[in-house]
Each structure stands twice: as C-alpha cells, then as structure tokens.
Design a protein that fits this description.
alpha/beta, 43% helix, binds nicotinamide-adenine-dinucleotide, EC 1.1.1.22, UDP-Glc/GDP-Man_DH_C_sf
Length: 434
C-alpha cells in the first residue's frame, strides 16, 4: 500500500513510522519546513520513546520519507491520512477544524485514481461529511471515499499502542474503502487486534466517548481523593478496592492534579459543545470539565497550604512540567495552572523536567530552570512532584534535605509513602491520603 500521512506531529509521525514498519510505502507530509528539515536530517522533532530508532530503520529501508510537498505525496497514494491538529477554537471551545478542512482542500486538488481519504485527527461527529463535501466540490471527478479512523494511542507509549491496539475503529459505509483499510491494517491481524467497522459518524463519536469516559474516571477518583482527605481515608486503597472489580477496572484510577495534555481537555470540551448543539447535553462531561479546570489551580493552593499559608518570597521547586511522563508535550499540562497560581501568590518558581523544558519555556514566563532534581531543590522552601517521571521515583531525601531551606514535599502523584519521606524530616502532603 502507498500511504500519505498529512501532518507529522505526535500522531502522524508515529502512525506513519508504524505503517512503514508494517511494510507499507509511507510519505509523511508537514507544512512546517523546520519539522521536515529535521526529519530529513535524521532528527526527531518530538520526544517519544523508541521513535528515533523506528524512523531511522524505516528510512534506511526506503519505506519512509518526508516532504513539505503535499501534492506529489497524495498523487498515487492508496490511502491519504489526515493527522493534523484539532485544537480548541479560541473563544468558544469547539474543535477548530480549519487545519482539517484546509488539508482536505489541498488533498482534493492532488488526488489521482481511487483514493481513500482517512481522518485520523480527532474530529466532531459529522466532520467526515464536510470533508467529503469539500473534496467533491473541489474535485468533482475524483474517485474518493472518506473514512474515519480515530487514533487511540497514548503519548509516551505511542508505538506499542499503535502496534498492539486494544481495537481499531474504521468508520465507513463503503465496502471498497473498507477493503483498503483492511489491507492497511492487515499486519495487525497477527496480533488479533479487533477491527470494528462502523458507520462514519459512529466512529467519530466513539473517539470522543472514549476520551470523555476516561476523563470522567480520573475526575471521579480525584473527587473521591478530596473526600478521603476530609474523612481520614486513603484514596489509593479505595482505588484498589474498587479497581479489582472487573466491571470497574484498575486503570485510570490514580488521583492527581487533574488531567491535562493535548487530548482530554480539548476533546471533553468539544464533546460538551457538540452535545449541546444537538440538544442532547452530556451533563456528566460538562461537570467533569468544570471540576478538572478548578482542580489544576487548586493544586497551587495545596502547595501554599503546605508552606504554611503563604509562599510570598519563597522558592518553590517543581519536579516535572509535562502533563505526564515520557513525553515532551506541554499542551494543557496542569503545571501551567500550578505555576500561574504560585506566581500570583508571590512565589519564586524553579523547575526541572527531563524532556519538557524546551516546550515549557515559551509557555511559562518568569520561572527558572534547573539541570536536575537536586539543583532544582537547592535553597527551596518546598519541593513539588508534579509529573511522575521515573527520575523522581527514587530521590535521595537526605541529599534533598541538606540542599533545601525548608523540608516540605508536596507529592501530587502519590509517588512516595508518608513514612519514607517523614523519616527524613520532611513535612509531606499528597493527594487523598489523610
Ligand atoms: P500535532 O500538533 O503534534 O501535529 C499536527 C501537525 O500537522 C503539525 O506538525 C502541523 O504542522 C501539521 N499540519 C497542519 N496542517 C497541515 C497541512 N495542511 N498540511 C500538512 N501538515 C499540516 O498534533 P497531534 O498531537 O499529532 O494530534 C493530531 C490529531 O490527532 C489531533 O486531532 C489530536 O486530537 C489527535 N490525537 C492526538 C493524540 C496524541 O496523543 N497527541 C492521540 C490521539 C489522537
């Protein structure tokens, strides 16, 4: 199969490299010349474990290449994937589909022969209809089918998720397009990945329903954590107690500072708007969005409380800035609200993140960066674990204690046990553990 991937970001680059690894002939397109230049020079513009080796191998085998030129990549492709961004639209929170529609228009002008255009970006229900309309309007003669194939990979484990997915969802009513999609994913039959062929709208909605459900699960345990703190209970034990029930499941029951990242915040909001527009409001998700927004800022208040009620003039050291470990993605990370809350309260903020500092710099003004956890803690009045990178899971507390002015640890990811930390003379606060 010849595949063109339009958009070479977290999803496009991983998907393109994995498809090439399946044996397909893949060309990844991006309109950002710096990104393509880097890829052509063998540099990976994002941090994703294993991606450099996978890209390198497939480039060497001649199955994967990169270009800024959409038209030649699309001409002759059997399948053209749209994997461009769909951020929240400024002002109203709807998904901004301008990148998707612009890509559709460009693709329409370049198609030759029968082509399946596949929307991999997360797009509101009905977007496939509009993409099809744009293509038919721009190129009435084109032989084309528009399919939805939402992506469920997680940053930080993206390659494994792509190659061993829990399921693949293909939204099309067109048998010929379904056959092409089956061919694209055929190598995964070996892993017995369930392939669900659904209507296009159903596939589009499935992606939002999945993300909204996961965001709800996180928000649920976060509120249970707050209650645990008030009533003298332990949220980790509650999570285990409910998670062992197979109907509930153990995953996504880790209490923390609120969900962030490039997907859950924008996708929950977009689903809320879509549902309201269609007169079928999903109030549980509306509440999840509101609760989560407040929670991120509340984490700054938690740090302030741990510091005795004021951080004015105090140095607060943050460990971890990205929304989760093993990624450099800073989009909607809880750290953004936490830093803002601390700075508003007069704190001097210093931070260290193993991979995220470059992306953090333009987003976080007025903070300084350290080269590791111990430099970050130097002279600090409080240390806050914001993201649970492995590098923060076995900290040397004696060394930290000696480096810090005040021994306060706020563990927003419940990485440590109170005993371990208090033994070293720290005051310790965590999430949902009274
Ligand atoms: P991203 O911002 O990392 O990448 C998008 C890329 O598309 C950018 O490099 C941009 O330059 C490029 N682009 C935009 N318009 C273009 C055009 N007309 N032609 C060529 N390139 C163009 O975004 P991402 O994180 O990869 O997300 C892409 C989509 O996948 C979004 O809809 C997102 O919701 C969805 N998604 C993301 C994840 C994730 O973990 N990041 C997981 C599942 C689904």
């Amino acid at each position: 199969m010849r595949i063109a991937m339009i958009g070479s970001g977290y999803v496009g680059l991983v998907s393109g490299a994995c498809f090439a690894d399946f044996g397909h002939d893949v060309i990844c397109v991006d309109k950002d010349p710096a990104k393509i230049e880097a890829l052509q020079a063998g540099r990976i513009p994002i941090f994703e474990p294993g991606l450099d080796a996978l890209v390198g191998d497939n480039v060497r085998q001649g199955r994967l290449s990169f270009t800024t030129e959409l038209a030649p990549a699309v001409a002759g492709a059997d399948a053209v994937f749209i994997a461009v961004g769909t951020p929240s639209r400024r002002g109203d929170g709807f998904a901004d589909l301008s990148f998707v529609y612009a890509a559709a228009r460009e693709i329409a002008g370049a198609i030759t022969g029968y082509t399946v255009v596949v929307t991999k970006s997360t797009v509101p229900v009905g977007t496939g209809d509009e993409v099809e309309h744009i293509i038919r309007e721009t190129a009435p003669e084109a032989e084309v089918a528009v399919v939805s194939n939402p992506e469920f990979l997680r940053e930080g484990a993206a390659i494994d998720d792509f190659k061993r997915p829990d399921r693949i969802v293909i939204g099309t009513e067109d048998a010929r397009a379904a056959a092409v999609m089956n061919e694209v994913y055929r190598p995964l039959y070996l892993n017995a990945a369930p392939i669900l062929v659904t209507g296009r709208r159903t596939a589009e909605l499935t992606k939002y329903a999945a993300n909204a459900f996961l965001a709800t699960k996180i928000t649920f345990i976060n509120e249970i954590a707050d209650l645990c703190e008030q009533v003298g209970a332990n949220v980790q034990e509650v999570a285990r107690g409910i998670g062992l029930d197979n109907r509930i499941g153990k995953k996504f029951l880790h209490a923390g500072p609120g969900y962030g990242g490039s997907c859950f915040p924008k996708d929950t909001l977009a689903l809320v708007k879509t549902a309201q527009d269609h007169g079928a409001p999903i109030r549980i998700v509306e509440t999840v969005v509101a609760v989560n927004d407040q929670r991120k800022r509340a984490m700054a208040r938690k740090v302030i409380a741990a510091c005795g009620g004021s951080v004015r003039g105090k140095t607060v050291a943050l460990l971890g800035l990205t929304f989760k470990p093993n990624t450099d993605d800073m989009r909607d990370a809880p750290s953004l609200s936490i830093v803002a809350g601390l700075r508003d309260a007069g704190a001097i903020v210093r931070a260290y993140d193993p991979e995220g500092m470059e992306q953090a710099r333009p987003l976080l003004e007025g903070i300084t960066y350290a080269e590791d956890a111990y430099h970050c803690a130097e002279g600090a009045d409080a240390l806050v674990i914001v993201t649970e990178w492995n590098a923060f899971r076995a900290l040397d507390f004696a060394r930290l204690r000696a480096a810090m002015t005040e021994a306060v640890l706020v563990d927003l990811r419940n990485v440590y046990s109170r005993n371990t930390v208090e033994k070293h003379g720290f005051r310790y606060s965590s999430i949902g553990i009274a």
